[in-house]
UniProtKB/TrEMBL annotation:
The active site is at H241. This is UDP-3-O-acylglucosamine N-acyltransferase. Pathway: Bacterial outer membrane biogenesis; LPS lipid A biosynthesis. It comes from Flavobacterium humi. InterPro entries: Hexapep, LpxD, Trimer_LpxA-like_sf, UDP_GlcNAc_AcTrfase_non-rep.
Length: 339
């Protein structure tokens, strides 16, 4: 799909400097721009590239005045970075705006869906599923029985949504994610043999939740595993049964959260963090990457280490830890002198 500079300027409420009929069909970095591509200049460090870029159109701040000759058509806007982000969002909406039911696929007779629905090839939608408007379910996805999916939600190829799951409006579930698998519940008998504890709860994703590729969210043993509105989950995260994650919390890749832990609002959790079960983590908590959390955490704490402790204390301790061989050597010398 092609767009002219004039059309793009209309979307961004910008001013064209150059050829208003210049056409682009793809996006590029300014240093890698090619004919027919659109790029942007926001960081002054990249200003030299605008004089050599082969990009057909470049979005720039309204204050930009070229010092040398340029060949690219400019679109001047108030904030080039925000405008380019807006354009990316617009481009994504067009790219993902598929409609219709592809063949072959399975859409149960008892399932219902709203307007502008897309169901990709080899997808499966189970019994009594309720799907809202503008929902896109890509090929090879699985939607189990009695699932509810809100408006404007996208489920990418190969995602699996188990039965009874409830998904809100504006959610995104990426490829390979599994929502609603059984929690890890087993009980040993007197002989030490483990028997499965039935997991009969569900998973609830509230509005505007993003679930990264290959992330797993387990169903509750009883009740619900709950991901509150605005939560953003990176790829390859494990969330165990009966966990609750508060609004607008973000969690980076390879983090694991054990069962029944409650995480507050607006937390930031780094990659490869391990969080033990049955804990309460307050609002606004910051946990640095590769930390291990084994205790309750109060609001607004910033932590690092395994086990975690205060971020500033960790940094002070690490200075001494780096010098530990030297400190030990000096202690050994003192021992020798005192003999």
């Amino acid at each position: 799909m092609k767009f002219t500079a004039e059309q793009i300027a209309g979307i961004l409420e910008g001013e064209v400097v150059g050829n208003p009929n210049a056409e682009v069909s793809r996006l590029s970095k300014i240093e890698e721009g090619t004919e027919g591509s659109l790029t942007f200049l926001a960081n002054p460090k990249y200003i030299n590239f605008i004089y050599d870029t082969k990009a057909t159109i470049t979005i720039v701040n309204s204050t930009f005045v070229p010092e040398n000759e340029i060949t690219t058509t400019l679109i001047k806007v108030e904030d080039a970075y925000k405008s380019f982000s807006k354009l990316l969002e617009f481009y994504n909406q067009i790219k993902l705006n598929k409609v219709g039911i592809e063949v072959p696929c399975v859409l149960s007779e008892s399932a219902t869906h709203g307007e502008n629905f897309y169901l990709g090839s080899f997808a499966y939608v189970g019994e009594n599923v309720v799907i809202g408007n503008n929902v896109k379910i890509y090929p090879n996805s699985f939607i189990g029985d009695n699932v509810k999916i809100g408006d404007n939600t996208i489920i990418f190829a190969g995602a699996k949504v188990y039965s009874e799951t409830e998904i809100g409006n504006g959610c995104t579930i990426h490829s390979g994610a599994i929502v609603g698998a059984d929690g890890f519940g087993f009980a040993p008998n007197e002989e030490g043999i483990y028997s499965k504890v039935p997991q009969i709860g569900n998973v609830i994703l509230e509005d505007n939740v993003d679930v990264g590729a290959c992330t797993t969210i387990d169903r509750a043993t009883l009740g619900s595993t709950i991901i509150r509105k605005g939560v953003k989950l990176d790829n390859q995260i494990q969330i165990a049964h009966n966990v609750e994650i508060g609004e607008n919390t973000v969690i980076a890749a390879q983090t694991g959260i054990a069962g029944s832990t409650k995480i507050g609002k607006s937390c930031m959790i780094g990659g490869q963090v391990g969080i033990a079960g049955h804990l309460n983590i307050g609002n606004g908590v910051r946990i640095q990457a590769q930390s291990g959390v084994g205790r309750n955490i109060k609001d607004n704490e910033t932590l690092q280490g395994s086990p975690t402790f205060g971020y500033s204390d960790f940094n002070k301790s690490y200075v001494h830890f780096k010098n530990l061989p030297k400190i030990v050597s000096e202690l050994e010398e003192l021992k020798k002198k005192n003999k």
